[in-house]
Amino acid sequence: MEPIRVLQEDVIMDMGGIEVLLMNLYRHIDREALQFDFMMHRPDHAFFEEEIESLGGRIYRTPPFNPFKIGAFKKSITDILSSHPEYNIIHCHAELNLWPLKYAHELGVPVRIAHSHNAKTTLNLKYFFFLYEKMFIKNHCTDMFMCSPLAGEWSFGKKAVAEGKVHMLKNGIVTDDFRYNEAVRREVREELGLTDEIAVGHVGRFMKQKNHAFLIEIFREIHRKNPKTVLFLTGMGELEDSIRSLVSEYGLTDSVRFLGVRNDTVRLYQAFDLFLFPSLWEGLPVTAIEAQTAGLPVLMTDVIADETVVTGNVTKFSLTRNAEEWADKALDITGGFDRRDVSDQVKKAGFDIIDTAQRLQAFYIDRHQKAEREKKNR
Fold it and tell me: Which structural domains are found in the chain, ordered by start?
């Protein structure tokens, strides 16, 4: 019997929070019963493509969303969906997902999921399309998902969340892989050339949301107060060059290391002493869950959803505080922190990927079977 195929929609399957979640889910579903295929809106080769294909997934590409070339965008998506009537389910993760859902609705795809992963968006031209999307997306999706109530309210409104119309899907991780391990910590710190330095870590794309410029200002103050500190930045993105220039301008080139996209962040967390996360906004960041599971103290902005705090390792701090105040708080945290294994707390909070994958798989199978029965009864 052929597995049920679910079409996952995203901009590009590179290393990012949404994409890591999708791959974690893909690795932990029963692929004899269920298969993921991916529709991406970029021509570039993506980080996870080889693994997707090795797991049996198909990859489709469309042009990027461009309001001035919407015809080409629509034609590409409708061609894919028309050519593959086996898709009863499309699950949309991109920030602007109204249009793929609308085209799927027009073609009669029975299950159309809109998934909110963020609690805000960048204030640019895209923002006005997002406001338009918020007004009409409920007309074209059959189901709404969120990673946190903040994310659900941002995309679908407080009323929909309060009435239980939005499904919560927690950003699960492989908790056993991330649990604190002193032997791995020593090994990775040696690889990174660390001895007794305080290693401050951050994992995230170089984009406005992650607030890298302020992060560098904070670290400048940390390093001024304690020169035996190193900052590790993991990720890539459109703002990387400007952040490198800022690091150079502040004279921090020898103390800030750009690690690029890594597939071993599970090991890197072990080497860090603090996870610094001054984002301007988030839905529910996977990296903050990963860092906590690794036993790290986390210093993050107070705008991030309360559901992100699943251990006693998290300190929330306001962006109204200046860089020096953030630095003082960071050094205070690292000065007296007793690191230990807290992975069981993360599991109890429902963030283990096995639980997340089982819940989503049951949902997909149930909705697919209902769609098939409805087709037969027409």
Answer: 4-172+352-376 (3.40.50.2000), 180-348 (3.40.50.2000)
